[in-house]
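Hi L., both proteins are below.
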Amino acid sequence: MVTYKLPHKEFFANLKNGKLLGLKCNSCGAYICPPKINCSECASLDLEIVELKGKVEIKSYTVIRVASEGFEDEVPYIVALAQLEEGPGLIGNIVGVDPDKITDDVIGKKATVGYKLPPSKLRYRGPIEEIEPEGLAFTFSLA
């Protein structure tokens, strides 16, 4: 049986405590974040847990003005694609910037990774009708 080297529960607990953990592949040297069962580059299972710097560069963004279910109280908000210094890409919310005043100047800016809890109204649907979400959303605070 294959098990996660870094279970999501442990990943989220560390993020709440200010530590961004990831995985480093011992076969090809790639970094993985958020954690997965195998390397995203070479599919190796030979991974080790590492602490990442938590520094990103904003690569792209969009302003969400029409909310999906559970996010009605959040709009407008900024969703961004950012790249960690170690390589992996993350999707999260840019915080501390007015969504109505953001410009493309934000692309290429450095930021620090943080987290926020998902909206309390958010429900995951699946085999069990409704379950409370376990997890966090990444945030990016511009430097």
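That was the first. Here is the second:
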Amino acid sequence: MPRMGRVVLPNYPHHIVQRGHNRQVVFACAEDFQRYLSDMGELKEAFHIKLYAWCLMTNHVHLLVCPESAAGLGQFMKSLAARATRYRNRLMRVYQQEDEIRELTAGLRAEKAHVEQLQRQLEFTQEQARQRHHDC
């Protein structure tokens, strides 16, 4: 059985709580908070939402909002969540690429060290061969 739809009263304040997926961290740094506030400011104008108060926690958000229309609140929250998700996914791709670069760099350093070791062994072997040849 589907859940009942929320009752949204136009021009009446609503307390909204929005959590991260499985209560995961939503805001990891100051830029994350600033981005969310910027998006919220832009979208409240687009969907005719009055924003009375907000509290941004690391893993959830509290908003006190007043929509001019019943549909506006849902559209506002949906758009805000979608922007936050796209922003987080872009960051995760960047972090993953940085991790891959670090792994490749570490692998190249290890290969370089191995090549240098082989080069020293070759030089040592060549020096031993020269000494044997000189002794003859």
